[in-house]
Design a protein that fits this description.
The chain has helices at 19-27, 63-75, 101-108, 125-132, 151-162, 214-232, 234-239, 247-255; strands at residues 2-7, 31-36, 49-50, 60-61, 88-98, 112-115, 136-141, 258-260, 266-268. With 270 residues, it is α/β, with parallel strands linked by helices. The chain has a five-stranded parallel beta sheet. Its EC number is 2.1.1.228.
């Protein structure tokens, strides 16, 4: 997979050289290219922003450097053949579609992603409209809050996407039971995990994990996942498919204070 990032702060993307992403780059699994947007400015101040039309606070990133930068980055791709998929343009923005594990899985299946982390009040809208005419453009938000810029969301998205690629994780099955993994555990959060030593500061670990009984361990983990999800993300319980729950699941939910409504969905008891 190829990843391009155009930014006015290339140094912000240095974490892409470490940990799993850095190792994937070193092995050639990921081709990551970071570009300085100011390379495509033409004044002595390397200006990338200006005041917004219509007034208002803040500055808006100018379309000219973005257009030149994206044109040049896109031109470095191989000539498109009949079966070659064009790159996906990923625009981090608080007003975008929520970034979820489902979207990470979808993007991990693409051969080329181009990220456009903005600063100030964002990028002149005409840039998004221009490239939406020829590319798959995704405006994506990592949460209901506002950051100083889009570089941190790029780091979040790249790590979430990269770990799904073959050859990135040491154990290829490691991500299959992740929280939010599509189609697993009714999209429950993962339960608690433990490692050696068996006792630490007077605290032990659940006996079932020492039993060697894989069926009981799996059941315990699922019960713990329901308990954590009900406490931290009850919305996931309410959205889960009732047909995905077995008899034990239903008993677990009832024990946690949930009841199945007339609509078939599970809701906290009154």
């Amino acid at each position: 997979m190829r990843l391009d990032v155009v930014t006015i702060f290339p140094e912000y993307l240095e974490p892409l050289n470490v940990s799993l992403v850095g190792k994937a780059r070193a092995r050639g699994v990921l081709d990551v290219r970071v570009h300085d947007l100011r390379t495509w400015t033409h004044d002595r101040h390397n200006t990338v922003d200006d005041t917004p039309y219509g007034g208002g606070p803040g500055m808006v990133m100018k379309p000219e450097p973005w257009g030149e930068a994206l044109d040049e980055v896109l031109a470095t791709g191989e000539p498109e053949g009949p079966d070659q998929e064009p790159p996906v343009l990923v625009v981090p923005t608080p007003s975008g579609r929520p970034f979820t594990q489902e979207l990470a899985v979808e993007l991990a299946d693409k051969p080329w992603l181009v990220f456009t982390p903005a600063r100030y009040e964002g990028i002149d809208r005409r840039v998004i409209e221009e490239y939406a005419d020829r590319l798959d453009v995704r405006e994506v938000s990592i949460g209901d809050y506002v950051l100083a810029g889009g570089e941190a969301p790029v780091l979040v998205m790249v790590e979430a996407i990269a770990r799904l690629l073959p050859g990135v994780l040491g154990n290829a099955a490691s991500h299959q039971d992740d929280s939010f993994a599509p189609g697993t555990m009714a999209n429950l959060l993962e339960g608690p995990v433990y490692t050696k030593p068996p006792e630490w500061r007077g605290r032990g670990i659940p006996e079932v994990l020492l039993s060697g009984h894989h069926g009981r361990i799996a059941r315990w983990r699922r019960d713990q996942a329901f308990a954590r999800t009900a406490a931290n993300r009850p919305d996931l319980i309410e959205r889960c498919d009732p047909e995905a729950l077995d008899k034990h699941d239903r008993a677990t939910l009832e024990g946690l204070g949930w009841r199945q409504g007339t609509d078939g969905r599970w809701h906290p008891a009154e």
